[in-house]
Design a protein that fits this description.
Length: 302
């Protein structure tokens, strides 16, 4: 099968291993494959599927793309997506200064100082995953995400390995409701998924336009759609579009992590969480990422 590869630069001391560790733990990473120090993900390009492989190559990352119609354009697009997923194009010196001078933030970051947030490859995918994650536990959300891929997605084979393909908006707009109900999807989740997919198909939900808006306006625009509340919109802006100024202060996990960093047992209030964010202006989404990661470290123990 045709393939192309290149190497790409990374920020100084970038911790690719920490990104892979996040993906191993993440309930959203149902389409990604992590084997040792290698990341793989398949996606649709036109009518074909392509497999992207990323691995460390000394101080750079090696990106390889393979598929039946791979060309230079395929490699360029793969590199763009990889740089987005691993937050490689953000100038993070100011964040590093915050970590060095803010004891609470330093506790949240821990040994991951050279890590960077891992984003979701496509903003529509981040919206679908966020809708599924509404008001359910992370383990159940992961099972629902995998079930959605099984019901409405596709499967691609590369060598001896099979990879799930994210369902397209057109497939979700008319997804089989009974098939999803059999997988324990609620009627509300099915309606919200269909509505979002239909909006994508009709062009009324345009992520390129949202990305150009200030954060508050983008949140307002997203929450006009049925089933997209503030938390869901925040997840899309943070993890799908990479907006760094978003602060999901109502999120219980975030408030629990902030309490742990202050040696407290009870989650801090939403008001307290918003007050703390004033110290991290412009980097709120990054702080939230490391706060959630700190909970994973606590659960795993020393």
């Amino acid at each position: 099968m045709p393939s192309r590869e290149t190497t790409i630069s990374t920020p100084t001391a970038y911790d690719f291993g920490a990104a892979l560790a996040f993906l191993r733990d993440s309930p959203s990473a149902v389409l990604e494959s992590v084997d040792g120090q290698t990341y793989r993900r398949a996606w649709r390009v036109g009518r074909a599927f392509e497999l992207v492989t990323v691995e460390r190559a000394t101080s750079r990352l090696r990106v390889r793309v393979e598929g039946p119609r791979v060309d230079a354009k395929s490699l360029t697009e793969a590199v763009r997506r990889v740089r987005h997923i691993f937050s490689l194009d953000v100038e993070a010196a100011a964040f590093q200064e915050l970590v060095a001078t803010d004891p609470m933030l330093a506790r949240l970051v821990g040994d991951d100082r050279h890590a960077r947030p891992v984003l979701i490859a496509d903003p529509f995918e981040s919206l679908v995953w966020a809708i599924i994650g509404q008001q359910v536990g992370v383990g159940f959300a992961r099972r629902l995400r995998q079930a959605l891929v099984d019901v409405a997605g596709r499967e691609a084979t590369f060598g001896a390995s099979r990879f799930g393909i994210m369902p397209e908006a057109r497939a979700l707009a008319c997804v089989d409701e009974e098939a999803l109900r059999a997988q324990h999807f609620s009627g509300a989740k099915i309606r919200y998924l269909r509505t979002a997919a239909q909006a994508m198909e009709e062009g009324t939900l345009d992520f390129a336009s949202l990305a150009a808006l200030p954060g508050a306006q983008a949140l307002e625009a997203l929450t006009r759609f049925p089933g997209i509340g503030p938390w869901t919109a925040e997840m899309v802006l943070m993890r799908g579009l990479g907006v760094r100024s978003v602060w999901p202060a109502a999120d219980l996990g975030l408030r629990r992590a902030l309490a742990h960093a202050q040696d407290g047992g009870t989650p801090v209030s939403e008001t307290h969480a918003r007050a703390l964010a004033t110290f991290w202006s412009g980097w709120e989404a990054w702080v939230a990422y490391f706060a959630w990661r700190s909970l994973t470290r606590s659960a795993q123990g020393p």
